[in-house]
């Protein structure tokens, strides 16, 4: 998947405000990247979509997680949402993707 990086940190609380759901843990943790669970770093937001992915909580390095239910064995802040993958995509689109800027039509263009 690769890491998506932002030039300005956002907090877990800001992510919670964006996607809704229930926040478990501190909202002060800074987020600098988005990553899959396997690629997550201590500055990354990641997600867990099912219980199978949460079987090894000791190996999770993410700063915070988007999850389908609260997982007490994981110490990282968790935002419980109905669809963690959709919430992850919403964060990616809102924060990590530059909005489209129209360049317009050239002044010297002629129609003919």
Q: What does it look like?
A:
By secondary structure, the protein is α/β, with parallel strands linked by helices. The protein has one domain: MurE/MurF, N-terminal domain (Udp-n-acetylmuramoylalanyl-d-glutamate--2,6- Diaminopimelate Ligase, Chain: A, domain 1, 3-Layer(aba) Sandwich). Helix content is about 20%, strand content about 25%. The protein is built from 2 helices and 6 strands. The protein has helices spanning about 10-20, 85-95; strands spanning about 5-10, 20-25, 30-35, 45-50, 65, 80. It has a 6-stranded mixed beta sheet, with helices on one face. The longest helix has 13 residues, at about 85-95. The chain is elongated. The protein starts with a strand and ends in a 16-residue tail after the last helix. About 25% of the residues are buried. The model has no long low-confidence stretch (mean pLDDT about 85).
How far the N terminus sits from the C terminus, by CA atoms, comes to 47 Å
| CATH H-level superfamily | MurE/MurF, N-terminal domain
Uncertain runs with pLDDT below 50, 5 residues or more? none
Strand content: 25-35%
How many domains is the backbone divided into? Answer: 1
User: What strand order characterises the main sheet?
Assistant: 1-3-4-5-6-2
The geometry reads as elongated
């Amino acid at each position: 998947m690769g890491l998506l990086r932002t030039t300005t940190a956002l907090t877990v609380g800001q992510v919670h405000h964006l996607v809704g759901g229930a926040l478990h843990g501190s909202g002060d943790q800074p987020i600098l990247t988005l990553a899959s669970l396997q690629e997550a770093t201590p500055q990354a937001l990641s997600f867990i979509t099912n219980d199978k992915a949460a079987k090894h909580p000791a190996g999770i390095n993410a700063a915070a997680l988007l999850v389908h239910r609260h997982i007490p064995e994981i110490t990282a802040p968790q935002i419980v949402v109905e669809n963690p993958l959709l919430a992850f995509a919403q964060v990616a689109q809102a924060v990590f993707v530059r909005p489209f800027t129209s360049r317009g039509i050239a002044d010297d263009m002629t129609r003919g």
